[in-house]
Design goal:
This protein is α+β, with helices and mostly antiparallel strands and about 375 residues long. The chain has two domains: about 150 residues, no CATH class; about 130 residues, L,D-transpeptidase catalytic domain-like. The protein is built from seven helices and 24 strands. The strands form eight sheets. Strands 15-14-13-24-17-20-21-23 form an eight-stranded mixed β-sheet, with helices on one face. A three-stranded mixed β-sheet has the order 2-1-6, with helices on one face. β3 and β4 form a beta hairpin. α2 crosses α3. The protein is rod-shaped and about 155 Å long.
Length: about 375
């Protein structure tokens, strides 16, 4: 009996010892687990070792530190020069100039998310032993908000307007201006091309496409132009660059002016009414108004032009004045000839008045070369 009691006591002691040992181990493991948990909690806002973003080691960094580091690393790409050429001119811009930005925040958020992909003890182990997790995260670049504005500036710089054909007033005489095509940036294709270049790595030279711009008016469709030469008292009707008809005219006598310049026909009238423009001077002995018809000072047709001084090209009741310096500024024609001219020149036709009355000319004189 005594022996049995001794055996029972030894067994009880062994159980107690084992229990104590197990308890100690449990407490130790619990303490270790708690310590590991606390360790991780204190470092939960830092990135695990061995995490890189676009080759930049962000392990051990906080979110803010990592964002700053990634942005600094992205500067080289965002500030890399791109040479853009168009129409013989060249510009140097950077992706940042064109609105490109790095997605550093999104990349760092991914780096921090690696923490959540691992258990507490695994994270603790990597941090405590500085064992890298070997995770590489790409850095994206997006944005092109300033591309359209840049393209608009380039388009303005390289634009060359086309030249329309014209019989033009130049330096007091007429000039025959031939038509030439212009050029313009193909803005839609240029913007698309530049955006494609931003997405490519690396593209450092971009030649933007140009296009020809055809003139609206060529010599073949130029239409009529009236040229009045004061030194000849002649009116020439040009079709394109060729003289189609020639008429003798009367122009201003000494003391009055038929003004040089490039004017337009802005109104036409059949059997125009004449309104006396000088009731207090040379028209004092004439009626204030003379209706259209026989004896009207403006004859049977009138072309009103934009020259100052109420200047008109019109017929006359005084055929003997044609070819002479005899008017108060208007350009007179025989009624039969203004009637020929009238349907040939629409409103909007250019009227170029060039040359000058000879310095010594008197009223009713004719130019030396006149054939009236």
């Amino acid at each position: 009996m005594a022996k049995g009691r001794h055996i029972a006591k030894r067994h009880t002691r062994a159980v107690v010892i084992v229990a104590v040992v197990v308890g100690v181990l449990v407490l130790a493991l619990g303490g270790a687990a708690y310590s590991a948990y606390r360790y991780e909690q204190e470092r939960s806002n830092t990135i695990l070792p061995g995490v890189t973003v676009a080759g930049i080691d962000v392990g051990g960094m906080t979110r803010g530190e990592a964002i700053d580091a990634v942005r600094d690393g992205a500067t080289q790409e965002l500030e890399a020069p791109i040479k853009v050429s168009a129409g013989g001119s060249t510009w140097t811009v950077t992706p940042a100039d064109l609105g490109r930005r790095s997605q550093a925040v999104a990349a760092v958020n991914q780096a921090l998310a690696v923490n959540d992909s691992m258990g507490t003890f695994s994270r603790f182990w990597h941090r405590f032993r500085q064992e890298p997790v070997d995770v590489e995260i790409d850095l994206d670049f997006t944005g092109d908000a300033k591309v359209d504005g840049f393209i608009a500036g380039v388009a303005k710089k390289v634009q060359v307007p086309p030249t329309d054909a014209a019989v033009a007033y130049r330096d007091g005489d007429i000039a025959f201006v031939k038509s030439h095509p212009g050029r313009a940036l193909n803005a839609g294709k240029a913007a698309a091309q530049l955006r494609t270049a931003l997405e490519s790595d690396p593209v450092r030279k971009v030649a933007l496409p140009m296009k020809k711009v055809a003139p609206k008016v060529t010599a073949d469709d130029l239409g009529p132009t009236i040229v009045v030469r004061l030194d000849q008292n002649k009116l020439y009707l040009y079709e394109g660059f060729q003289v189609d008809r020639t008429y003798s005219v009367a122009t201003a006598k000494p003391g009055y002016t038929t003004p040089n310049g490039d004017w337009l026909i802005d109104r036409k009238a059949v059997n125009p009414t004449w309104y006396n423009p000088a009731l207090d001077s040379w028209g004092a002995d004439l009626p204030a108004v003379i209706p259209g018809g026989p004896g009207n000072p403006m004859g049977t047709r009138a072309l009103y032009i934009t020259a100052p001084g109420l200047i008109r090209i019109h017929g006359t009741s005084d055929d003997s004045s044609i070819g002479r310096y005899a008017s108060h500024g208007c350009i007179r024609m025989h009624n039969s000839e203004i009637e020929q001219l009238y349907p040939l020149v629409p409103v909007g036709t250019h009227v170029l008045i060039v040359g000058s009355r000879p310095a010594g000319a008197q009223e009713w004189d004719t130019p030396a070369t006149a054939d009236i």
